[in-house]
Design brief:
This protein has 521 residues and is mostly helical. The chain contains 21 helices and no strands. It is a multi-pass membrane protein.
Length: 521
Amino acid sequence: MSTAKKAVKAASVIMIITLLSKVSGFLREITFAAKFGTSVSMDAYNIATVIPMTLFVAVTAAIATTVVPIFTEYFQKEGKQKAFDFINNLLGVVLVATVILTFLGFTFAPYLVKFVAPAFTGEKFELTVKITTILLPTMVLIAASNIFTGALQAMEHFTVPAMIGIPYNIIVITVAILYGGKFGITAVAYSTIIATFIQTLVHLPVLYKLGYRFKLRVNFKDEGVKRVILLAMPVLVGTGVQTINVYVDRVIASFLPDGSIAALSYANRLKTFALGVFSTSIATAIYPVLSQHSVADDKEGFLKSLNFVVSGILYVLIPVSVGAMVLRVPIIKVLFERGAFDEKSTYLTSIALFYYAIGMTAYGLRDVLSRSFYSMKDTKTPMINGAIAVLLNIALNLILVRYLKLGGLALSTSIAAIFATFLLFTSLKRKLGKIGGKYMFMSFIRAMFASVVMGVVVHFVYNNMIIKMPSDKRIYEVIVLFMTILIGTIIYSAIVLITDKSALSYFKRGIRFVNSKLVRN
């Protein structure tokens, strides 16, 4: 079996499991919406998660990304035991660092909250500080979880890393339902620690089956650890653009009316659903394929794989983006509008979702393009482009928030992502010469044309169907939304298959890959 086929099959399995994980994540957000809506307590929780779970997750994700090539090198050249020794030492060093950061966080929590949300005062500020101190220990657990994830992916075991969100969400949902009414948002904060701990432990059975044994090692001078840190620094900036953008958005949103931060968070969850299922799954599986082409100096194979992936993302995410913009209100109503999440909450969230959706395709392309540079051992280019995009996002935030308020923050994030993707394409062409730009551009045109037609039809279909349905029961809204999406999918697929004959062969290959049982688990 070719390496490319194995990667696409792996991506298919990752997509299926990730879909289940994302669905459980949506159920968590639906529960939050029903229990807390866009309230002050939800704003406090979302800001409190920025410090340990949003800012730090970018660091540990960058470490996990660089673990893969280094672990693989140890594994192939010096054996499994040396590779596991490297993991134990990296884990020990990172755990020491995160424990120190946790204790510092306890001491400076009020200042951290003031930095992240400078407009918070009074009870809102105090609640945010309290939740922040509760969540700080998750930094240690997130670090361990990401290192374990990198090791498993390096050994081509993708299932467990893709499904760890499921037990996490089940625990948080259960606590929110049973204790959210009595103990408020603090119950959710405590459940987050428990859920993150379980999320970390889920990796160990598979790792132990593969021969891993935990042994605490702390050697800051270890060559492997030094290489991880050196590689992780540019990766952090290159891949952490979205995380930094979220942070900037929330700081500025703290000056907007209550509920703005929560609305941004709900809209961001909707946006990342599609990204997590499709682009992240594809990027995870294609990374080793591109690396192998790079090592073998197989430029033709590298570009062929890259073109296939980029076209696939365009054909999937462009219609999803258009659909999200057209059906943003009914989608949010069906998913979230119940309990404390009222019509005002739907309105605020729909504004953010509309502008986030503009950059959705760019987010997916950026992830794949960044990894194409990493596979060529070039972490500097994504870092520079990412830094430029962050600066652009901050500048646009300050300008657009004055005119579009909440929508301006989401729009500036999308524009920055589009600009970063354009820079990555330009840099890749400069590095490789011809990259098949005409083929990718034609895929973009076909996908955009089909999506616009689909969007117009979907708009009229939904509006005509919903007025004929009784307005007293939510089930009718669900039925109309489902039927509208189904009709839109059929129309879009038909246009794409007519305008691009190769799309049918890709679809058939995708079905075979999904049904295949040849992926290692």
